[in-house]
Amino acid sequence: EEVDEIAQGRVWAGETALELGLIDNLGNMEDAIERAAELAELEDYKTFYPASPSEWTNQLFSQLFSKIKYFIDSKAEEKTLIEWSFELVDDLESFNDPKGIYLKCLDCLLY
Questions:
Q1: Contacts of 47 (CB under 8 A, 6+ apart)
Q2: Per-position pLDDT tens, the chain of length 111
Q3: Following DSSP, what letter does each residue of the chain receive, concatenated?
Q4: How much is the pTM?
């Protein structure tokens, strides 16, 4: 209630938020992670930073083109390139999570 009375849903610059007592400390991401681990009483922990969307997109298309090259080079008989392409487009259209969070086995695209 005290924070709501001051903050009222607004965004405050770090130094102002500190002066108003809305935050305890200023720091960077590593400082926040260390403090969270300390509060959770974790001595051994790991952090994971997912790839940025542009890195993920580059990886997806890199995998896609390598699979197409493999398909053409091996002349795979199970599926035609067109059938495989339609399945891939269906998969891509299913990527509709508003937060852009997905798990997809890129090595399985050909199967």
A1: 33
A2: 777 778 787 888 889 889 988 888 999 989 999 999 999 999 898 888 776 667 777 777 777 777 776 666 665 556 676 777 777 777 777 777 777 776 666 566 554
A3: -HHHHHHTT----HHHHHHTTS-S----HHHHHHHHHHHTT-SS-----PPPHHHHHHHHHHHHHHHHHHHHHHT-SSS-HHHHHHHHHHHHHT---TT------GGGTT-
A4: 0.39
Residue 33 CB coordination number (10 Å)? 13
Q: Do residues 30 and 45 touch, judged by C-beta distance below 8 A?
A: no
Task: Please say whether the beta carbons of 69 and 81 come within 8 A.
Answer: no
